[in-house]
Write a structure and sequence with these properties.
The complex is a heterodimer. By secondary structure, chain A is an all-alpha fold. Helix content of chain A is 75%, strand content 3%. Chain A has one domain. Chain B has a single domain, classed as ABC transporter involved in vitamin B12 uptake, BtuC (Orthogonal Bundle). The chains are: A mainly alpha, B mainly alpha.
Amino acid sequence: MNFYLFIDLVVAGLVTGGIYAVVALGLNLQYGLMRIMNIAHGEFLMLGAYFTYTLVKVTGMSPLWFIPPMMVALFLLGLLLHRLIFRRLAATSPSIEAMESRSLIVGFGLMFIAQNAAQLTWGGGMSGQPYLDEAIKFGEVTVAANRLLVLVVVAAASLALVLVLKKTLLGKAVRGMLQAPLGAMLVGIDTRKLHPACFGLGLALAGLAGGLLSMVYELTPAMGEPYTISALIVITLGGLGNIPGAIAGAVLLGLVETFGMYYTSPSLKILISYGVLVGVLLLRPKGLFTK
Amino acid sequence: MKQGAFVFVAALLLAALPVLDSPFVQSMALTCLMYAGLAVSWSMFSGPTRYLSLATSAFFGLGAYCTAWGLAKLPWPVVIMAGGLAAMLFAFLIGLVVLKLRGAYFAVITYGLGELVKHSITHVEKTYAGTVGRVMTETPSSNVVYWTVLIIALLAVFTYVHFGRSRYGHALRGIGMDEERAATLGVNPMRVKLIGFCLSAWFAGALGAAMAVRWTYIDPNTVFNPFIVFQTVLISMVGGPLTVAGPLVGALVFSLLSEFLRLSLPYLYMILLGVLLIVSVLYLPAGIAGHDWRAMWARVRRKRFGKELRDE
């Protein structure tokens, strides 16, 4: 293989992996903290992408202006959904397993609602809106500017989240809840406030990924689904509640997919993802990085 | 006994339906029976064990593809049996490993395996057959299809009741309540789960094999459609998977609903399904048939009565 092609593939894999990382971090918080198996997680990515797209189309300004307010809106939507649905679900579920499977069904319900509402609002036709699609040259290697931007933003977001979790008191509280839910309550961590906030944060992160994707790819109401599956694979790879593990797993999956597609064919992308998921679940159900 | 007589009369009436010679009514009844069969067979395993299986689409699609491959060469009953057996074999093979997983992981992996089968078949057909879809020729008459589906659905109801009463049914319920305890009490969980999973797969596969000829042209996206499993789970959950009446009531309600809404307002229908799914999970965890309506009514009355007292 030619060296420049190799670099191209690595960059493409990193971009995909970075998006997966941001999506998976949100789902990891939701599942790790509250046992919410939110199968509709990718749908919030789709909503984020459509919101950004619509605002850009109406105002003609750069999408970067709209990503922060859209994330705030999705955060608030997350608080609302948690208040309306998941709080009651957690209160009435007899066991963790019941909570997982009931939240999974709720997730399918949310998925139906979000996808079809998007279909009604924006129609099924693909809509794309390339932003910053000129190429940047680094010597012999050329990279599209928007992909580079996506890579920088997702890397910054993941790093920021890891730092918040590692360095701040708030992060310590979240890590405490991840490790010992009951113990966290006993030492005075207010789960009733932090759970909705983390759920909302998950949605906001999915929205960030969606907003970034709207600069690169075309949009469809079903665009979120593959990202949900990828996020599930990443969580399984990295281990439940393991934030650095999830980031490593995301980058790994992005690279495996990109190289796998190059050596086989692009139509096999989904087959590769599901193959990795099934393989990991069967061989290492606790994640790659556990001892 | 009264229930048995009721089912017998209902079956006779349904079997006589083609006399009406109304294609519209018959096609609606066919959809209803298909979902009734799927939901009853799903509840057979997933109801008592609470293992949320999302593999129904895969079983259904495998059955349908058996028909696509075998219809021209084999007699109709053999095709149906083969469809069921193919699904059963698939259930056995994946069951050996996936039945070790619990909770959401089980649901996600059964869904993932279904998608894996769908994409594999698409890829194989594209590469070796050169086409994605298959056209069915020499299909049996619509009455034959209707009676076949009716028989499979009745068989599912019969099996549900008798399997539930057998020692395996009790063992499955024991596993649903507490798997470790059931194992301590002498149940072999893996064996019992495998039997239940394979049994429920046979019906989904046979229904897929029978329904395939209705489309005349099938491709992986139609017969492995995840919508099939979603609707099945929804019907069972809303109806109540722990009684055989639950999935039947659910199937009736949803086929009527889909007949009137799906064609005119397809997206709104799906949104409504989503809302119903969430509401039923939140407020009717045991389903329409399993819900304690009397206790709820008493609670409502007490509330109103209490209010009137305070007003005075």
